[in-house]
Specification:
The complex is a heterodimer. By secondary structure, chain A is α+β, with helices and mostly antiparallel strands. Chain A has helices at 14-60, 94-102, and strands spanning 111-112, 123-129, 132-138, 146-152, 155-160, 165-170, 174-180, 189-196. Chain B has two domains: 3-86, RNA polymerase sigma factor, region 2, helix turn helix motif (Rna Polymerase Sigma Factor, Chain: A, Orthogonal Bundle); 95-177, Winged helix-like DNA-binding domain superfamily/Winged helix DNA-binding domain (Arc Repressor Mutant, subunit A), CATH 1.10.10. Chain B has eight helices and no strands. Chain B has helices at 3-11, 15-36, 40-56, 67-86, 112-121, 124-135, 140-147, 151-171. Classes of the chains: A alpha+beta, B mainly alpha.
């Protein structure tokens, strides 16, 4: 049997190689073009991410000195403290200062004292309770010295040496006189809160 | 330059190596195209396309088998794709036409050009199956898969191709130099 496989063997036209070479060149240039496209796209994405990150960082933590020299820049100044024997910063006084704040006003005797005659015949005085000052004014020339004897919730109980009693309630808007043994006309009268201290 | 070195350079896109490879294998590969495709222009186009695929895919060749076999397979596939794309393979078989008792044909002392002419004169479908079975050595099962036909169709196409060849030989009065059946 003849060799059928190689029966048709013949060299193709020379121009086929030229066409093939042209096709291969075209493919190679397309590959290069695709590479440049991918590379430029990657570079663009990188630049975009870098720009976004930079501006995001700048907006979040703006510091005009971020890229400046910081040789002479100090972000804050520490004031030097001079040592002073009598001063606030003398450590020896710290316990005294702390104790002073530790003593509550509630521990002190609250007194409503009178005998202060005003020109119009009225008597007025201030009561300091917590953060507020209450100005109490009565048209009495003589006002007994009242001492705070007890506190029940918002209610204050005063007594005087002469036996007079006074019961006052701390209300949101002021100090209200609930009852007294000697001021019947002032029952349920409120004295305004004057100022914060 | 030896073949391995040539292939290595071709993988890098070296044009000189590509040309050397082309010059060495072009007759064989172009012969495949000529055997499958009667039309010269079609054969050239398919050969060009096949060669381009070979160079474009040469990086995929791992050197595990025969490089020549790898190239032939690409070229045969390219021919089959062309046939399937542009030609209508007439694979309709009249079973009455088939005489299964016939033996394989041999071409004896026929001149090369006469054999080539006989093969090229075969209808497209007959020639394709004849080439794949007799020349390439494919099995009917493989041919059926390649062409998307049944195994029986492949067998019948081969039988009819042989029958046609005998008719041609008789018609062209080549019988005196034809050795007949084996």
């Amino acid at each position: 049997m003849k060799d059928l496989y190689n029966l048709f063997d013949e060299h193709p036209d020379r121009r086929i190689w030229d066409r093939l070479e042209e096709k291969l060149d075209k493919k190679a240039s397309m590959r290069k073009l695709r590479f440049y496209r991918v590379a430029s796209f990657a570079a663009m994405i990188t630049a975009l991410v870098a720009a976004v990150s930079y501006f995001d960082h700048m907006l979040d933590d703006h510091n005009p000195h971020l890229f400046a020299s910081n040789e002479k820049f100090t972000s804050f100044v520490l004031e030097e403290i001079e040592y002073n024997e009598n001063g606030l910063f003398n450590m020896a006084f710290f316990s005294e200062i702390r104790n002073a704040y530790a003593v509550s006003k509630e521990d002190e005797t609250l007194e409503l004292s009178g005998e202060y005659m005003a020109v119009d015949g009225e008597i007025g005085f201030n009561i300091f309770l917590a953060k507020y000052t209450y100005f109490l004014e009565f048209d009495y020339a003589g006002f007994p010295v009242m001492k705070l004897i007890s506190v029940e919730g918002q209610t204050l109980y005063f007594t005087a040496e002469g036996g007079e009693t006074l019961k006052m309630n701390v209300e949101p808007y002021g100090l209200k006189l609930i009852e007294s043994s000697f001021l019947p006309e002032y029952h349920h009268y409120s004295f305004s809160k004057l100022e914060a201290i | 330059m030896n073949l391995d070195e040539n292939i290595r350079l071709c993988k890098k896109g070296n044009r000189e190596a590509q040309k050397e490879l082309y010059n060495h294998y072009a007759p064989l590969l172009f012969g495949i195209c000529r055997r499958y495709l009667k039309n010269d222009s079609d054969a050239e186009d398919v050969f060009l396309s096949g060669m381009f695929k070979i160079f474009d895919n040469i990086k995929k060749f791992k050197g595990e088998g025969s490089f020549e076999g790898w190239m032939k397979r690409i070229m045969v596939n390219e021919c089959l794709m062309h046939i399937r794309k542009f030609k209508k393979l007439n694979m309709v078989v009249e079973w009455s036409q088939i005489d299964n008792a016939e033996d394989p044909i041999v071409f004896g002392k026929l001149a090369e050009e006469e054999i080539k002419s006989l093969i090229l004169d075969l209808p497209e479908g007959y020639r394709t199956v004849f080439n794949l079975y007799v020349v390439e050595g494919y099995k009917h099962r493989e041919i059926a898969e390649l062409l998307g036909i049944s195994i029986n169709t492949s067998k019948s196409q081969l039988i009819l191709a042989r029958k046609k060849l005998r008719e041609f030989i008789k018609k062209k009065d080549l019988g005196s130099r034809y050795e007949g059946f084996v």
